[in-house]
Amino acid sequence: MDTPCNESILVCVYYGPNGERLIKRGCKIANLMQAPLYILTIDPKPFDELDAEKVFYIEQWKEYANTHATAQFMMKDNESRPVSKVIAEVARENNITQIILGQTAHSRWEQITKGSIINALVREIPFVDLHIISVARYIRDEEGIYEKGIRAYLIKDGDRYNLSFNHHKDTLYEGIFFKEADTDFNHGIFRFMKDDETLQVQVTEGIVTELKNVDLQTAMIRDNADES
């Protein structure tokens, strides 16, 4: 696609809430430059082998792409090649001039490829601008406080919401539940989409009292106080 400044933006996202921030940054740059926007994620596993948590984020990214007139979501699954090779290939095929990467995704992909993705991209596509965005750590990296996310649902019950792991006709919200480690109760964080915004709410013994976005550090401090 030809644009007034002949720019094309590629946002590379990895699983976790940081993807939303990277995509919004990409949308902002694309709007300013009147440029097409591409959103890319890469996974070594086939799509049909991905867990509910990963599928949830992929669905979110597709929705974000649909809200931008010139955006396109792309997924490279069952991919055994180094991530830098795949990104470079996508960049060439779509005449990408600027690539946006998150710091967390960079670190994760370094582990996968056993090398620096930044240095590899500079060698592969030296004339593409790279933007490295500093982002907060993914919830699973918070010192092992939360277990792996699983698909869950919220059901309205009076002035509160009950957490369920089965879909019911009365289900209001579908999302991912991150249970606190080392507990037999359903304490943790429920992350879901509401009005095109990602929210994470506190769950205590399987109950959400209000749909108020919580800061993870605040939630952890409160939990530690309860334990003492």
TrEMBL record:
Domain UspA: 8-126
Gene Ontology CC terms: plasma membrane
SUPFAM superfamilies per UniProt: Adenine nucleotide alpha hydrolases-like
Any GO MF annotation of the entry: phosphorelay sensor kinase activity
Top-rank lineage group of the source organism: Bacteria
Gene3D superfamilies associated with the record: HUPs
The name this protein goes by in its record: Universal stress protein
UniProt source species: Paenibacillus mellifer
